Automatic annotation (TrEMBL):
The lineage of its organism: Bacteria, Bacillati, Actinomycetota, Actinomycetes, Bifidobacteriales. This is Uncharacterized protein. It comes from Bifidobacterium longum.
């Protein structure tokens, strides 16, 4: 007999996103390096995600089981 379970899982994934960012003039030219630094530092945030491609799942970080139910295969 199998059980159906409901699980809240935290997953780390590698994705590629195309996003829209409002770039302030005081941060200089929006070069690749400057944009990456501003995103990492939290200086800018994205306004919209235009496209997202999931590349792969890197890890399953945690799982919390909160519901189980026996399947009746009879």
């Amino acid at each position: 007999m199998n059980k159906s379970i409901t699980v809240d899982v935290t997953i780390t994934k590698q994705t590629s996103q195309r996003m829209v960012i409002e770039w302030p003039d005081n941060l200089g030219d929006p070069t690749d390096a400057n944009v990456l630094k501003a995103l990492r530092d939290g200086t800018v945030d994205y306004d919209d995600i235009i496209d997202e491609d999931e590349i792969k799942t890197l890890s399953y970080d945690s799982a919390d089981v909160f519901d189980t139910e026996d399947d009746n295969d009879a």
